[in-house]
């Protein structure tokens, strides 16, 4: 776990391409040959970092939100958890940076990342469906559009918070979320 913790922190700061077996060995005081024997390639290391990040994301963002009352309270909890997740990573959300790095690069890393992102979007769809079921959203809501809108809001938060370092980001995100939710009620 220490290896993947350090790898995740590095990937958060420098992107998955910024993580090498050599640099990871150096930071964890392990031998380069020992790490290579374990992962077999940089690509396998990158996939393992994504898998590890996915487990942490589920534990820290999705599972706690699912314990919240369905509908708008669950959506708000999910957003709050995602913002906290992003804040706890040195460089921000690894999935956002990895998506930029691997969007047009075929291979095992992109394939795994694409599956993770589709699963995440599917989670957003199901949360929207539960909001319809409990009466918080209109019955005619396009859940795919809601997932797109909510994820777009989160990606905008990432840009404003991490790159632009806007002091008003959290306040703006809260206002944007309230407006988004109002559009679907």
Question: Which descriptors would you attach to this protein?
Answer:
185 residues, mainly alpha, Tetracycline Repressor, domain 2
CATH topology-level name: Tetracycline Repressor, domain 2
What does the main sheet amount to? none
What radius of gyration results from the CA coordinates? 18 Å
* Low-pLDDT segments: none
What fraction strand?
A: under 5%
Number of domains: 1
Global outline? elongated
Question: Structural class of the helix and strand makeup?
Answer: mainly alpha
Distance between the termini: 43 Å
CATH 2nd-level architecture:
Orthogonal Bundle
The total of helices stands at 9
CATH class: Mainly Alpha
Could you please describe the fold and organization of this structure?
With 185 residues, the chain is mostly helical. It has one domain: Tetracycline Repressor, domain 2, CATH 1.10.357.10. It has nine helices and no strands. The protein has helices at 2-14, 21-28, 32-39, 42-66, 72-88, 94-102, 108-133, 143-163, 169-184. Helix 4 runs parallel beside helix 7 (108-133).
Give the secondary structure arrangement, pairings included.
Blueprint: H1 2-14, H2 21-28, H3 32-39, H4 42-66, H5 72-88, H6 94-102, H7 108-133, H8 143-163, H9 169-184
Task: Give the gist of this structure.
The chain has 185 residues and is an all-alpha fold. It has one domain: Tetracycline Repressor, domain 2 (Orthogonal Bundle). The chain contains nine helices and no strands.
């Amino acid at each position: 776990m220490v290896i993947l913790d350090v790898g995740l922190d590095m990937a958060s700061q420098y992107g998955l391409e910024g993580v090498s077996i050599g640099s990871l060995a150096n930071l964890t005081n392990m031998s380069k040959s020992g790490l290579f024997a374990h992962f077999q390639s940089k690509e396998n290391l990158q996939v393992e970092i994504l898998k590890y990040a996915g487990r942490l994301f589920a534990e820290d963002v999705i599972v706690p939100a699912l314990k919240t009352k369905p509908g708008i309270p669950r959506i708000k909890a999910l957003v709050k958890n995602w913002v906290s997740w992003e804040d706890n990573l040195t460089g921000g959300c690894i999935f956002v940076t990895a998506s930029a790095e691997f969007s047009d690069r075929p291979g095992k890393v992109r394939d795994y990342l694409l599956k993770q992102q589709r699963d995440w979007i599917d989670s957003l769809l199901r949360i929207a469906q539960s909001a319809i079921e409990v009466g918080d959203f209109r019955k005619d809501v396009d859940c795919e559009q809601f997932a797109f809108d909510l994820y777009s809001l989160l990606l905008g938060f990432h840009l404003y918070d991490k790159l632009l370092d806007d002091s008003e980001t959290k306040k703006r995100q809260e206002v944007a979320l309230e407006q988004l939710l109002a559009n679907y009620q």
